[in-house]
Specification:
Its cofactor is Zn(2+). This protein is an alpha+beta fold and 599 residues long. 53% of the residues lie in helices and 12% in strands. It has 26 helices and 19 strands. The strands form five sheets. The chain has a six-stranded mixed beta sheet, sandwiched between helices. The chain has a five-stranded antiparallel beta sheet with strand order 2-3-4-5-6. Helix 11 packs parallel to helix 14, helix 17 packs across helix 19 and helix 21 packs parallel to helix 23.
Length: 599
């Protein structure tokens, strides 16, 4: 592995990974001219506004304004610190990092997460080895009964937790993992009252849960009989967030991207059975209800999600609750209800993958499915029809596209034989009570404190320096940047100016190093997203316009101070300020004459 000093390793890592390849691990990108575009993973949209520039190695979303380099994307997408993102991308590029100076807080966070991942790796090895031990005969027989081939067991790293209180605990201590760390990883549980720790998973088949980078973030465990709870999952930890984890996504991501479809099933064995039969684009939530983050993550890999449910009330309720989540993220969702008595596992074992995929082709849109389900329960009596409308009106109200919503209203009215206006009124009433923003949606989670937008002219000056570096000497000569109203933009402008004066290439990827804060990085990415060059005469016109805006601002401030001095009876001060204003007017007239003569 190549090794670089702390001074140049960040730039070397950035230049060694292709930002398009990295982002393509998380979402679908398509070539569009010199750039690549896709649906933004940070906000809901139907039309791609997320752009990636491979030459300058940055991304920018024209919809929500997010932008930055490859480090920013990995940090944001995976909720990592900068040192963690740097280490991840360095490993990808085969670069051995020299030690970097980190703050004590950064060191603590990185060290803790690394230690938890290491503990999980040891636990995975223990569970996998235990599956081949004599005491795991029941587990192996259970796998055989479920027709799980060996290659699937190895791909998903399935294991077994022995029916002992401290088997894993002892193993981890032998590997140097202290009990408190294993407990923090969710592997051990402490007795109430502060007693000894014991293994969380006992006498269960173990399913390691990979994050999208392939690391083991947590585990799921399933009993082999009728004991409860049937499934037991890792608790929330610094590296495991069940609301963001989709079981099987690491193994399914390429097939999801290839087919544009993801099957959302309910159980771990459903994922494994489909995978074993060649349907390799299925994922499952990890013992929790579908969350906004789940939807946001899966939309990076597939345009369409097919929810595969049992034909029971729980499946119907799950579909009803999930529809607003898919609507909020602009993801197409359909519902596949399997015949009574079947789940995906039993269905593919009995009928095969071909029939499963054919059934999926005929899956229903969410609203028609909910309507048919409601009719099946309530019937078509007068009371039944009223109950059907009452049950699905909120889901129809959640449909964001007005045309689609109106078509559903018409379809419901025709199916029930009721006046379309009555259905419309019910939907409108439901819409009035809907929250403007769903709790827990990506929009709410990543909402930033309101900040004043950068001044349009100040942004134009920065853009001008980047796209027409020849004008930088004139910007410096006139000391325009010192007049910026935003301290943050002023600081960024001075760094850009110094970078150009030192011979730096504003068109290269290195310019992103100048932006320290995330808001600066997003602003700079927006500036860089405009590829068309600017000509010097146009830049000089921008400079002249900015100077005039400075003069107007100064005049307005002088007028305010003159008015205040007169109001307070400071007539001498008011007179001096009037003289100052007249001098400004003379200077402006002289400059206008000079500019006119030149151009």
């Amino acid at each position: 592995m190549a090794r670089f000093s702390p001074d140049d390793q960040i730039s070397h890592v950035r230049n060694s990974v292709n930002i398009v390849d990295v982002i393509s691990d998380y979402m679908v990108l398509k070539k569009a001219g010199n750039n690549f575009v896709g649906l933004c993973p940070f906000h809901a949209e139907k039309t791609p506004s997320f752009s990636v520039n491979p030459d300058r190695q940055f991304f920018h979303c024209f919809g929500c304004g997010e932008g930055g380099d490859v480090f920013d994307f990995v940090m944001r997408q995976n909720n990592l610190t900068f040192p963690e993102a740097l280490a991840s991308l360095a490993a990808r590029a085969g670069i051995e990092l020299a030690p970097r100076k980190m703050t004590p807080q950064q060191q603590k966070i990185v060290a803790e997460r690394d230690a938890l991942y290491a503990a999980n790796d040891f636990a995975r090895d223990f569970f996998v080895k235990s599956l081949n031990a004599p005491q795991a005969s029941q587990a192996r027989e259970y796998m055989k009964k479920r027709e799980m081939p060996q290659d699937v067991l190895e791909t998903f790293m399935l294991g077994f937790a022995p029916d002992e209180w401290r088997a894993l605990s002892g193993f981890l201590q032998g590997k140097g993992v202290p009990p408190h760390r294993a407990e923090k990883a969710g592997l051990l549980v402490q007795k109430e009252g502060g007693g000894n720790v014991y293994d969380r998973f006992r006498n269960r088949i173990i399913f390691p849960i990979h994050d999208i980078s392939g690391r083991i973030a947590g585990f799921g465990g399933r009993v082999m009989d009728d004991a409860l709870p049937k499934y037991l999952n890792s608790p929330q930890t610094p590296i495991y967030d069940k609301k963001r984890m989709l079981y099987g996504l690491y193994q399914a991501r390429q097939e999801c991207r290839k087919t544009g479809v993801a099957f959302m099933v309910e159980g771990y064995f459903d994922v494994l059975a489909l995978y074993a039969h060649g349907v390799r684009n299925a994922v499952a939530t990890c013992g929790t209800a579908l969350s906004p983050d789940h939807v946001r993550i899966i939309k990076g890999y597939a345009k369409k999600v097919v929810l595969v449910f049992d034909s029971d009330t729980a499946g119907i309720n799950a579909a009803r609750k999930s529809l607003p989540l898919f609507e909020a993220e602009k993801v197409q969702a359909k519902v596949l209800v399997l015949p009574a008595g079947h789940d995906p596992d039993s269905f593919v074992r009995d009928f095969g993958a071909k029939e499963f995929l054919e059934a999926a082709e005929n899956s229903q849109d969410m609203i028609p499915f909910l309507m048919e389900s409601a009719i099946a329960r309530h019937g078509l009596s007068i009371e039944g029809k009223a109950n059907v409308v009452a049950e699905i009106k909120e889901q129809v109200a959640a449909v964001s596209d007005g045309v689609t919503r109106s078509l559903y209203i018409k379809q419901i009215a025709e199916k029930l034989g009721v006046d379309e206006a009555a259905v419309l009124d019910a939907v409108r009433d439901a819409a009035k009570t809907r929250p403007k923003r769903l709790p827990g949606t990506v929009h709410e989670q990543h909402a930033k404190p309101a900040e004043p937008a950068p001044d349009r002219m100040e942004t134009a000056i920065l853009q001008m320096m980047v796209r027409c570096p020849e004008c930088a000497p004139k910007v410096a000569e006139k000391r325009l940047i010192k007049h910026f109203s935003s301290n943050r933009v002023r600081a960024l402008g001075l760094r850009i100016l110094e970078f150009i004066q030192a011979g730096g290439d504003p068109g290269g990827a290195g310019i992103m190093n100048l932006a320290v804060e995330q808001d600066d990085r997003s602003l700079l990415a927006r500036i860089l997203s405009h590829d068309d060059p600017l000509e010097l005469p146009g830049c000089m016109a921008i400079i002249d316009q900015f100077e005039k805006s400075i003069t107007r601002r100064n005049h307005a401030e002088l007028d305010r101070r003159i008015q205040q001095a007169q109001t307070e009876g400071h007539h001498d001060l008011a007179l001096r300020l009037l003289v100052e204003k007249n001098e400004l007017l003379k200077a402006l007239q002289a400059r206008n004459l000079k500019v006119g003569a030149k151009y």
